[in-house]
Specification:
Elements lengths: L2 E3 L1 H9 L23 E5 L2 H14 L3 E3 L4 H5 L10 E5 L18 E6 L3 H6 L9 E6 L2 E9 L2 E5 L2 H6 L7 H18 L2 E6 L4 H19 L6 H21 E10 L3 E10 L4 H5 L6 H4 L8 E8 L3 H14 L7 H5 L4 E7 L12 E6 L3 H15 L7 E14 L2 E12 L6 H12 L6 E7 L2 E5 L4 H12 L9 H7 L8 E5 L1 H15 L14 E8 L2 E9 H23 L7
Parallel strand pairs: 1-3
Antiparallel strand pairs: 2-4, 2-9, 4-5, 5-8, 6-7, 7-8, 9-10, 10-11, 11-21, 12-13, 12-19, 13-14, 14-18, 15-16, 16-17, 17-18, 19-20, 20-21
Length: about 575
């Protein structure tokens, strides 16, 4: 099967691309983009971008990139292929924002790097002259203006080009808009898209109000679940309105490198604003990875909860939600300074997917923390969620495991027998936690921490204690984890890892038990997909990194599945089980 990335998709990709190596060296094209632009996309180096696309195609041989009319520009004589290119969505003459996402039409100006402006316009059948030159390019009439300094401006909107000053000196304003978090994205991404939030506050706020009204209309018909859903809507509204009110910029960065594919996204907030206060202080989630075991896994990660700003954010969200049944996030983290969790791999993904899960809490006063957890479980015992109720228990000091005094706990989900979804809830609980019908397990204190499991599995608890105390190898020592950590932001508030090999193994085993399916060959030592994020300097930033080995492995699996489907078709359409 061949996947073609068409012109529309390429336009979207192009809009998602800008770059730079340091804030002091923003791509030269950005210096000519007015600071009131609604959105700016930049390709840092045209030749490098082209090479990156070609290299990426080799990793996904069944995909092809159709550059469409944009290819004409890349071949133009007089173009500086080593330069940067910027595409800016500008406000109208009246200051309004007009953009049709379906057609990609709007008042846009393209800042193009040129080594010879005369040769550039001559390549499109025109002659260089004073003022604006009209050319036929990329399937439309464009108006071109020489900006000097190695750049020219192009637009299909003659009125926009008439009022476009094209003066340099705007880079410093973008530096302030991006802030420290944006600096880091620009430094690490090949391409970046920047949104100027100040230009769209009013329409975004109106859109949020309309969306919330529609959500509440449907929530009112949710019966017993209405109150719970209303709380969730209130949290979304709090976050969305805060972003629209306090945001300076939103940013998306893309990196196509030999090591893999990276996607950065984030936002910076106005100094002194409520949301800027939420994202201060950074974190040390990397240290938490040294407290969970180096065992086969599906998902693993750490979250530094010590930041006062993040705790204030959680508190604000809980206040917006109002009183809710079940444990709040503040109750879950309690007095801990961080949480690390390991969802260990198991072949029982349809009957106990989370039974190999262990959690480590970074805690100074372990006795106080265990008391908090006991109280939280007691508080939610019998809490009615509409479709189900919680049935909880906590028994302190039930014995000794691996030299650690343990308490046993349980939180069973009991469906309402009269609810038509009761059977589905029971099946879901059984799939996640096996016969226990909900999370349960052991809790025990170690030095400066508490270890917990989500099932009464002594081996899993023992491994968790070994890693937490340093007696056994930790997750941080895993070669695959070490290989991807360098591609994530430093001083992370959180890091998450997805073991594609662990998931592939489990899915392959399940398919074999079902009696068929394509063979899934899992490469040895496949590194994980990694996610990391920072919350500092009044900004939030996260990165998703997909190693090249994972991209190749997924492509191979897709090819094998296509082959299996073709074989089934040749066999008269009979399934292979």
């Amino acid at each position: 099967m061949t996947t073609t990335i068409n012109k529309g998709m390429c336009a979207a990709l192009a809009l998602a691309m800008c770059a730079g190596t340091t804030l002091a060296a923003l791509p030269g094209a950005m210096d000519y983009v007015p600071s009131d632009a609604v959105a700016v996309a930049v390709i840092r180096d045209l030749n490098e971008f082209h090479d990156d696309i070609q290299a990426f195609e080799k990793k996904l041989p069944d995909a092809s990139f159709d550059l469409g009319a944009a290819g004409e520009l890349l071949q133009a004589p007089g173009l500086n292929g080593d330069g940067s290119l910027a595409l800016a969505l500008m406000p109208t003459a009246g200051g309004d924002v007009q953009f049709d996402p379906k057609t990609g039409e709007g008042p846009m100006v393209l800042i193009v790097p040129v080594s010879d402006f005369g040769q550039f316009v001559k390549g499109f059948g025109a002659a260089a002259g004073q003022g604006i030159v009209e050319v036929e390019a990329m399937g439309k009439t464009l108006f071109v203006k020489d900006l000097a300094g190695g750049f020219c401006a192009m637009s299909a909107d003659q009125g926009l080009m008439d009022r476009f000053a094209g003066a340099a000196g705007n880079a410093a304003k973008y530096e302030g808009m991006l802030g420290a978090s944006g600096v880091d994205v620009v430094e690490h991404a090949d391409t970046t898209l920047i949104f100027n939030i100040s230009t769209v506050r009013e329409p975004v706020a109106q859109a949020i109000d309309m969306g919330m009204q529609q959500a509440r209309f449907f929530t009112a018909m949710a019966g017993a679940q209405a109150a719970q859903l209303e709380g969730q809507i209130a949290v979304i509204e709090k976050l969305a309105k805060g972003f629209a009110r306090d945001g300076k910029s939103g940013i998306v960065g893309i990196d196509l490198a030999d090591a893999g594919f990276s996607l950065d996204f984030g936002a910076s907030f106005t100094d002194g604003s409520e949301f800027a206060g939420f994202f201060q202080g950074g974190g040390d989630a990397a240290a938490l990875l040294d407290k969970i075991p180096a065992t086969p896994y599906f998902f693993a990660g750490g979250f530094d909860t010590s930041s006062e700003g993040l705790r204030n954010l959680m508190s604000a969200c809980e206040q917006a939600a109002g009183e809710q049944a079940g444990p709040s996030w503040s109750q879950i983290i309690g007095s801990s300074n961080g949480i690390a969790a390991m969802i260990g791999s198991t072949q029982a993904i349809m009957g106990g997917m989370f039974t190999k899960t262990s959690v480590y809490y970074d805690v100074k006063d372990t006795n106080a923390f265990l008391t908090e957890q006991q109280k939280t479980l007691a508080d939610i015992n019998g809490a009615d969620q509409g479709m189900f109720t919680y049935e909880t228990s906590f028994t302190a000091n039930t014995g000794d495991l691996g030299g650690v005094s343990v308490s046993e706990w349980a939180m069973k989900i009991v469906p309402d027998a009269s609810d038509p979804n009761a059977m589905q809830i029971q099946q879901m609980m059984a799939m996640m936690y096996g016969p226990a019908g909900g999370p349960s397990g052991y809790m025990g204190a170690v030095d400066n921490g508490v270890v917990m499991t989500l099932a009464k599995d002594e081996a899993t608890f023992g491994k968790a204690v070994g890693a937490a105390t340093g007696a056994e190898a930790s997750f941080a020592t895993d070669p695959g984890v070490k290989s991807v950590m360098g591609h994530l932001p430093s001083d992370g508030s959180f890091y998450e890892f997805i073991s594609v090999s662990g998931i592939m193994d489990a899915v392959s085993g399940m398919m074999m038990m079902m009696g068929g399916g394509a063979d899934i060959a899992v490469p040895a030592d496949l590194p994980p997909v990694a996610i990391g994020g920072t919350t500092d300097h009044g900004a939030f930033r996260a990165r998703i990194f997909v190693p090249s080995e994972v991209i190749t492995a997924i492509s191979d699996v897709a090819e094998n599945m296509d082959g299996a489907q073709a074989a089934d078709a040749d066999d008269g359409g009979k399934p292979r089980f």
